[in-house]
Amino acid sequence: MLSNMACSLIEHKRINTTLAKAKALKQFVEPIITKSKEDTTHNRRLTFSKLRSKEAVTQLFREVAVKVGDRPGGYTRIIKLGNRLGDNADMAMIELVDFNEVYQTGASKKTTRRSRRSRSSKAAVDTTTTNEEE
């Protein structure tokens, strides 16, 4: 079950499941993603022995490993969605962090640093203009 869920996560970049399965999947898939950062034959065979899907392994090593290459860990995010209507089970969405465009747009925003010196120089310019007008 974890192998199939991991293949779906790699293929779709986000899946909805129960909270317990999402937590188990996170522990299962994060070491596999760490192995994919180094593209060697040995790592590909180890990954294939866990996933059993040739397409998922190639997509993992081509697309996912490129985006997570500089990240030291924490490749997945679990977001709680509430309870399922049928059996009241806790539902969650598990997704790959680097493939969510909503959170990445806010991270690229540049911050400006404001110092007191720039305010005082503006005030000095404003006072000289008012003195010249009088």
From TrEMBL:
Coiled-coil blocks: none
The protein's name in its UniProt record: 50S ribosomal protein L17
Family, per entry: Belongs to the bacterial ribosomal protein bL17 family.
Database matches in InterPro entries: Ribosomal_bL17, Ribosomal_bL17_CS, Ribosomal_bL17_sf
Lineage of producing organism: Bacteria, Pseudomonadati, Bacteroidota, Flavobacteriia, Flavobacteriales
GO molecular function: structural constituent of ribosome
Species of the source: Nonlabens tegetincola
Domain of life (superkingdom): Bacteria
TM regions (residue ranges): none
Ranges of Basic residues composition bias in the record: 110-120
